[in-house]
Amino acid sequence: SLVLGGLRPFFWLFLLTFLLNAYFTPGSPGPLGTSLEGTSQGAVLTTRLALMVLTASLLTLTTSPIDLTDGIERLLKPLRKVKVPAHEVAMMMVIALRFLPLLAEEAERIKKAQMARGVEFEGGILKRLKNMVPILVPLFMSAFRKADLLSLAMEARCYRGGEGRTSFSELRFGLGDGLALATSGLLALVGTIW
Q: What is the mean pLDDT of residues 175-188?
């Protein structure tokens, strides 16, 4: 239920994706002014988006940030030959993945505080957009504050990424990893063909 709850914030994105495809993809006419091809394409794209969100939620809920960083760094290791800083890229990706749920939680907290002050989030689209300003400004301020605190914490711990860093446990590619990679590749192939 926790993983499926991760879909709720993306409901409007899923709906918008489906409707835009259903109404603006050319094809044979369907119900309510949609096209049959657009409806089919919208369903496929919405399903793909939902699966991406579910996979990302499942990954971040089951894997520690350290393991995630090590895994991404290991995958990006071959790019070091072309001077891509694998560790820094991995660290940025993990920080971004961990930061998004915090921002969503903070947005919900700010929204509840604004509702307690009498701001209404019901009504037409223009009214709702106008009433989002009291959420966005504090949310951006909070995001900058959290980013600043994170940088101070990393600095206080003398974090210096890049070459020369060692790992407590070295990752090894095993049979389970091979099976997971093969399954993922097969699912990606089926998804591409579908």
A: 87
